[in-house]
Design goal:
Elements lengths: L13 E6 L4 E5 L5 E5 L4 E6 L4 E7 L4 E6 L13 E4 L1
Antiparallel strand pairs: 1-2, 2-3, 3-4, 5-6, 6-7
């Protein structure tokens, strides 16, 4: 396959991935943060600490939607309250 380049993740536990046309945005399951990744150096440009763990991300064309989940001690569907936030 031509045109494909493989890069190691600049963050531990990469999970959600989005592209806004200029920057790659990446969430980390290891610490719940959101990162802006520089495409030229494949390094972290900015780090955003969210109020809850960031699980997933998508770009809508004008902003982002993040799935945030407050930490719970053990799996419990009654207490697992995930929310979609606009960023």
């Amino acid at each position: 396959m031509s045109g494909l380049t493989r890069h190691a993740s600049p963050v531990q536990g990469p999970q959600g991935l989005a592209w806004d046309g200029a920057t790659i945005w990446l969430t980390s399951v290891a610490n719940g943060c959101l990162y802006a990744i520089d495409l030229q150096t494949w390094s972290i440009q900015r780090e955003f600490v969210r109020p809850s763990d960031s699980l997933g991300i998508t770009y809508t064309g004008s902003d982002f939607r993040l799935i945030l989940a407050p930490a719970i001690d053990e799996p419990d569907l009654e207490r697992d309250h995930r929310y979609v936030y606009r960023f």
